[in-house]
Amino acid sequence: MKTRSFSLALLGLMGLLPFTAMAQSVAPAPDAAPAAPHLSPEQQDQQAAEDEAIPLTPEMIRRLGNRLKENQKAREDVATEVAAPTSRPAIRVSFAPGQQTSLIFTTKGYPTAVSFVDRSGAPWPIAWNTTSTSANPDGLKNCSSDGGKGGSPAVQTTGFYTCVPYAGSNTINIEPLSLSPRGGLLVTLKGAIKPISFLLLAGRGTYDDNLTVRVNEDGPNAKQEMGPEAAPGTAEPFMNAMLSGIAPASAVPQSVEGLSPDDVRAWRMGNELYIRTRLALMTPAWDSSERGEDGYTLYAFRQTPYILLSDSGRTVSASLKDMTP
């Protein structure tokens, strides 16, 4: 009886049971104060009626409220993970056969943004289906679906919610529907010869918050490169990481004098120098270059003490030397 009364009282606090019904069903609180001897019989009857109508004392209400909050917190704890975002260099993909499937790490409750760019660094839009209305076999609509009037993105997955915000966007947002789903993702880019496949993993305690996928082809918005800048990149993984601002452990940071560190970052590996900048390198001639989607370019050239760059048509010079610890 005590357990039933406590449960009914909790339901009453949650608004799931009418207060009058709760008052009729719950026995007077066992710890209710006895009638004061100095009260008259009429006053004692009035107090007894009040205790019967409102059997819960303020202390009991507070205790029930705290328990309700703890229960709600426990439900949220078991349904949501605490995860840390990770920063990874752009991953490279290709349409060539036999390519390894790339991994994307996700966590329920934390959206992952994946952006696609071509080898020139230009955004590569996701293809758009004008006749379909859903990008999720689970039955969920894509966030940009509008009942078939505007179609939906050429994206397919199971166990994950996907969102391409608008037609022509090169970014897809991904979020797991459960704590530990395993599934794949197929994304067809505009004008591409075939979809790009990914393996989606969740439940690792970390997730990709903002990931760039660099396709080793020219997309519909490819930048036209002129002169020495058209030299092909080496496609070395460390160059891809440097373009994201992450240098390998063997790279020696360079002190850049004459320019702000916000304009140029530089490293030396052996006799080769690498600079990451939004400015245009004029001299020396570079061996290769990599373009990023954020306007940065990574140049690789033989070691030299001075470089010339163009800043909106203005020529600026800088000197490079190993940064002392």
From TrEMBL:
Keywords: Signal
Region (Disordered): 30-50
Positions with biased composition (Low complexity): 30-47
Stretch forming the signal peptide: 1-23
Protein name: Conjugal transfer protein TraN
Gene designation: traN-1
